[in-house]
Design a protein that fits this description.
It is a single chain. The chain is of the alpha+beta class. The chain has a single domain, classed as Gcn5-related N-acetyltransferase (GNAT) (Aminopeptidase, 3-Layer(aba) Sandwich). The protein has four helices and eight strands; from the N terminus they run ββααβββαβαββ. α1 packs across α2. The radius of gyration is 16 Å and the shape is globular. It holds the Pfam family Acetyltransf_3. This is GNAT family N-acetyltransferase. InterPro entries: Acyl_CoA_acyltransferase, GNAT_dom, N-acetyltransferase.
């Protein structure tokens, strides 16, 4: 079985969430909701990090231990600036050889191809694991940017249920 810490791409580092990063996101989220004391934002975060999806993942990291492991969720870091600009992850563990991928880039860094670059890298990593035969994602129809990310990353649309489009990427 392959294990790793950081996954590197040309422009990004996909780094496993640390306990400290999880706590910082939760503290900033609580402070922003008026539920806790004022929390300072780490200097290595983009101005609009964390977004709602990152907050959900930080909360889930405590509930789902596999998400904190080497095959779970990662922060997306722009190599040139060193800033955390989003998140990506596998909703570990796989079921029947299938594992879901989720991702998000903060609005200030969207439109640069970062999501596609990160999805390709994490999908390739998932396929190094014998237990993964398919990586899948579900996207809402009103999110054409995410639909383009999946298409550019080699995923194929295989069905639609209401406003949800289902995409698969099978092991090559």
């Amino acid at each position: 079985m392959t294990t790793t810490t950081d996954l590197m791409t040309e422009r990004l580092v996909l780094r496993l969430w640390s306990v400290e990063e999880k706590a910082a996101v939760l503290a900033v989220t609580a402070a922003g909701n008026g539920d806790g004391p004022t929390a300072s934002r780490p200097a290595h975060w983009a101005d609009d990090f964390p977004d709602e999806g990152d907050q959900v993942i930080a909360d889930g990291l405590g509930q789902y231990p596999g998400w904190m492991g080497p095959f779970g969720h990662r922060q997306v870091i722009e190599r040139t600036s060193g800033l955390v600009i989003g998140g990506i992850g596998l909703f570990w563990p796989p079921t029947a050889g299938r594992v879901e991928i989720g991702y998000g880039i903060v609005p200030s860094c969207q439109g640069r191809g970062y999501a596609t670059e990160a999805v390709i890298a994490l999908t390739e990593f998932a396929f190094t694991l014998p237990s993964v035969r398919t990586v899948f994602a579900n996207v809402e129809r009103p999110n054409p940017a995410s639909i383009r990310v999946l298409a550019k990353s080699g995923f194929r649309h295989h069905r639609t249920e209401g406003d949800t489009l289902h995409f698969d990427h099978d092991r090559p």
